[in-house]
Amino acid sequence: MAQSTGDERADEDAGEGPSFEEGDAPPGVESSGRNRKWAALFALPFLLLGVGNASLILIWGINPLWAFAQLPPILFTTVLTYMVFRTDFLDDR
To answer: Looking at the whole model, is its pTM more than 0.70?
Structure first.
């Protein structure tokens, strides 16, 4: 028979995900407000660069259709960036 090493908890946790101490919440549960804050901060540069570019096109007097044609990709990239950082999609890698 195999002898116990006295560290039975290490054998129980082997192969499982991360263990949390008492009172600790898994990531994303308690800190969902924090994730939204960081997601908004990371998505903000995409939005500001895109809107700034569209406003420069309008100020320079180029056809306004070009400025409005850029808005859908700008908004798509901003929303996609927000969703990725808000849901911690990249933490699985």
So the answer is: no
